[in-house]
Amino acid sequence: MPAYNESQSVGQVVRETLSTLPDVDVLVVDDGSHDDTADKAREAGALVASLPFNLGVGGAMRVGFRYAAEHGYDAVVQIDADGQHDPADVPRLLEDLADTDIVIGARFAGAGEYRMRGPRRWASWVLAVAISRTARAKLTDTTSGFRASGPRAIELFSREYPAEYLGDTIESLVMACRAGLTVSQVPVAMRERAGGRPSHRPFKAALYLGRATLALAFAYARPRTPAAASGSTS
Amino acid sequence: MISLRAYIFAIAAALVVLLVVITLLRRRRLRERHAIWWLVAGVLALIAGVFPRTLEIAANFLGIALPVNLVFFISITILFLVSLQHSGELTSLEAKNRDLAENVVLLTLRVEELEKRELDSKHDRGALPGDEPGPER
Question: Is residue A152 part of a domain?
């Protein structure tokens, strides 16, 4: 659970996750927050990794994947600290992980009422079409921060996880697909955020479209990152 | 022909550049690989300052009508390459910085885990002697 200045919501989200899913370990990666996100998460019963400064979601996620790889976990679920993802959906994500390496909790695949308008919607459509082709699977929500990763994805992401803008969503997906990993999606409903403000405002939408397209272009322009040969970890 | 004052000024300026770069190098305030472009620039400026004819010959050879344009071209090229090199180094430093930050966090977690385990085993020692948990991989 990557968290940056989420002290209002992180405690509640951690408690809910632990009570809904008693068998999981919750690792909150505090991405150099200036508030007491780390303390709130620790009080709530999560394991907390506090980065010395802000690395962005990509940096926070690689810490999580590296921790998972070191401790031999066979599934990692990324879940937002602002409470918009429902921990009750996690078992459905994990179920699909039996067949694919990455499962995305998709916001517009039928469940819930999450809607976008204008340039953000076009951006999300362009991304969905492009990445679906690469993944050879129908993906409608490529920028979702609600994802489950299996062992092969954990191995890949613990070595290499893009720290660029939107790298944690778009580029990591493209990278995984090009490394031969499989991706699928499960429809989930989004909830109101428990705290914090949305990271994108309407007037930023046009800028977002441009940056997302650029991020996509760069993701395809990069050399492929091979998945590890089965059995060996280098 | 250029005036004597301009001639002396050009040489003095080139010498100052070289002097500053070499001083920084000697005091280890500048690493060789960063200084190389500035040294090249200083030496070129000195050559052009001492022998203005070389500049005219080079400009003529390249088909540049005004020799001063060659000076501008070379200056801008050197500045461009230096900033490109700096951007590249910045990128690699950021990547290393990220690696270090991640390592620090993971090591901190590991230390916390070990401390907790040691505390637990101290508590348990009375009840279960010899029951030391082995190190986790």
Answer: yes
Contacts of A63 in chain B (CB under 8 A): 102, 105-106
Q: Is residue A157 part of a domain?
A: yes
Asked if residue A19 belongs to a domain, the reply is yes
Domain that holds residue A45: 2-221
Residue A150's H or E segment, with its range, is none
Give residue-wise pLDDT tens across range B103-120.
999 999 999 989 989 998
Domain of A101: which CATH number? Answer: 3.90.550.10
Question: Which of B105, B136, B137 is opposite residue A49, by nearest beta carbon?
Answer: B105
Q: Which residues of B touch A50 (CB under 8 A)?
A: 105, 108
A52 and B101: CB-CB below 8 Å? yes
> What's the gap in Å between the CA of A228 and the closest CA on chain B?
20
- C-alpha of B56 from chain center: 33
Instruction: Write the DSSP symbol of residue A200.
Output: -
| Dist. CA B120–CA A73, nearest whole Å | 23
Coil, helix or strand at residue A49: strand
Distance from CA of A71 to the nearest CA of B (A): 7
Q: How distant is the alpha carbon of residue A229 from its chain centre?
A: 25
Q: What pTM, to 2 d.p., does this model score?
A: 0.79
Q: Residue B30 and residue A197: Cα distance in Å, rounded?
A: 45
Q: What is the pLDDT of residues B36-86, one digit of tens each?
A: 889 999 999 999 999 989 999 999 999 999 988 999 999 999 999 999 999
| Contact residues for A210 (Cβ-Cβ < 8 A; gap 6+) | none
Does any CB of chain A come closer than 8 Å to the CB of residue B96? no
The structure tokens 């300026």 sit at: B13
Tally of domains within chain A: 1
Q: Is residue A197 in some structural domain?
A: yes
B108–A50 C-beta distance less than 8 A? yes
